[in-house]
Design a protein that fits this description.
With 299 residues, the protein is α+β, with helices and mostly antiparallel strands. It has 11 helices and 10 strands. Strand 5 (59-63) and strand 6 (72-74) form a beta hairpin. The protein starts with 8 loop residues before the first strand and ends in a 28-residue tail after the last helix.
Length: 299
């Protein structure tokens, strides 16, 4: 039987958080879809922590970035940085709000370093306690997307702990990597912080969940996949490869397969701007938002 178009719902809204929250959260993405074909979405590696509060139905993760973590269903989810995709399934319905959280803000928002979330997904209540459940319920009862985003602004502003700072050297190294698009050599990062490469690696991984080398790889990949998504129906790898610091388009293709688990063409066909079967709520094609806690170069 043909799907009754009156039953189809396709809502996707992105918003910036309140100005005071922008050092912590890059954006909110609200989504609600009904009457679409079941599909699998790849949650790709990115420079942001994932915080999801579902609305009408839970989130089903069929495959985690860490293969040792079994499939699970989540009403709320908090996930760390990772270097392989998560596989998320739906049965034709999905709804919720996803927050892109700067990893250096994890201490301020969640009370722990992002390194403790590295490569894993948890029910948000495991970290936030009753706050996560209350926030989800407030979102469910809000009248619409502007009201839901206002709820998030208020709750997060009340919860944020500005004293939850990371070492200045780690903050500087993270921001330097972001500004360079993931192309700054790790040895240069260490030299500028005054730390040894080993000490920087250990402290950086503790605070972000990735080593500087792995973070640079994820940052470069995230920029490349955004450029690909913005390049139209017949994207070419050569231009994003050059722009993002890859040796050549073959290098980009290999990295894409390693981090996304599929070729760029397969990802674009399934989840790019022209794909109808699954809206990719992970991110649009925009540029990165301002980073957490601007500070001067370490002495």
């Amino acid at each position: 039987m043909t799907q009754d178009l009156a039953e189809v719902v396709d809502e996707a809204v992105r918003a910036r958080p309140a100005t005071a929250l922008r050092p912590y959260v890059a954006w909110y993405s609200g989504y609600r879809r009904r009457g679409i074909a079941p599909a699998v979405h790849r949650g790709l590696p990115s420079p942001y922590l994932t915080f999801i509060l579902t609305l009408d139905e839970p989130l089903t993760i069929a495959g985690h970035p860490d293969p040792a973590q079994p499939p699970a269903v989540y009403a709320t989810l908090l996930g760390g940085l990772h270097t392989s995709p998560a596989l998320i399934t739906h049965d034709g319905r999905q709804s919720g709000v996803q927050l892109a959280v700067h990893p250096l803000a994890a201490r301020a928002l969640f009370g722990l370093p992002a390194g403790e979330l590295a490569g894993i997904s948890l029910p948000a209540e495991d970290v936030l306690g009753p706050f996560g459940e209350r926030l989800q319920e407030e979102l469910r009862t809000a009248a619409g997307w502007p009201e839901r985003f206002a709820v998030l602004d208020g709750a997060l502003l009340r919860a944020a702990r500005p004293s939850g700072r990371v070492p200045a050297e780690v903050g500087w190294a993270w921001r330097a990597l972001r500004r360079s698009g993931g192309t700054l050599p790790v040895a240069e990062l260490a030299r500028e912080t005054g730390w040894s490469s080993r000490h920087l690696r250990d402290r950086f991984r503790q605070e972000t969940g990735l080593t500087p080398k792995a973070a640079a790889r994820v940052i470069r990949f995230d920029r490349a996949r955004r450029l690909l998504a913005a390049s139209g129906p017949r994207p070419r790898l050569a231009e994003p490869a050059v722009s993002c610091g890859y040796f050549d388009q073959a290098h980009l293709a290999r990295e894409f397969r390693a981090l996304a688990g599929c070729a760029p063409s397969a990802w674009l066909a399934a989840e790019g701007p022209d794909a109808a079967k699954f809206r990719n709520v992970q991110g649009g094609v925009g540029t990165a938002a301002a980073e957490w806690e601007p500070s001067p170069r370490p002495e």
